[in-house]
Task: structure prediction
Amino acid sequence: MAARRIKPSRYISVDIEADGPIPGPYSMLSIGAAVAGVQDGDGFTAADPEEHTFYRELRPIGEEFVPEALAVSGLDRERLKAEGSEPAVALAEFSEWVREVSAGAQPVMCGYPASYDWTFLYWYLIRFTGASPFGHSGCLDMKTLYATKAGLPLRAVAKGTMPRELLSRRRHTHHALDDAVEQAELFANLMAWQGPGSPR
Result:
C-alpha cells in the first residue's frame, strides 16, 4: 500500500487585542498575523515574519467592555466605532489572505498563548464568515510546545522562564501586528530548538 502523502503545514502567528475575556459579549478590536514558516516531511523552514503580514482594526460589536482589558491595547473604542473595519469584511479579507499565503499547504494558527487568541479568532470567523480557513482544530500553542520540549509542567512556563536565545529581540508592544511578528520569531526558534542542553 502506498504511503499517504503528507501535506505541508503553513504556520501563521496570530495575535488579537480585545476589550474583554470572551467573544460575544466583548469585542475583538484588532488582529495581526505573520507567516512564521512551513513544515513538511523534511522538517521546518522559517520564514521572514515581516514578508507576509496582515493587520486590521475592527468596529466593536457591542457596548460592553472591561476597562483594564481595553487599556492593554491602548485602542480607542470610540474611534473604532467610526473608523474600524466591519468584522464581516475584515474576517473575509483575513480568510482570503490565509488562503493566499498557504497555497499548497494547510494553514495552522500559532499563538502565545493560543487559547485566548484562538477563542476570539475562531468565534469571529464562524460568526462573520461561516467558516475557518484553519478548520476547527488547526491551532498550535507555543506555550505547550515549549513545555513539552523543556519537560516542564505547563503552568510553570512563562516567556521569562525560557532560554534567552529562544526569545525574539523585538518588544512585546500589545499592537497585534508587532506581537504576531515577535511571536513568529519565537515559534521559529522553538521549532528549531532540541530542548534543554542542546547546542545553540
Remarks:
- The two ends are 41 Å apart (CA to CA).
- The beta strands are 9-18, 28-40, 43-46, 53-57, 106-111, 139-141.
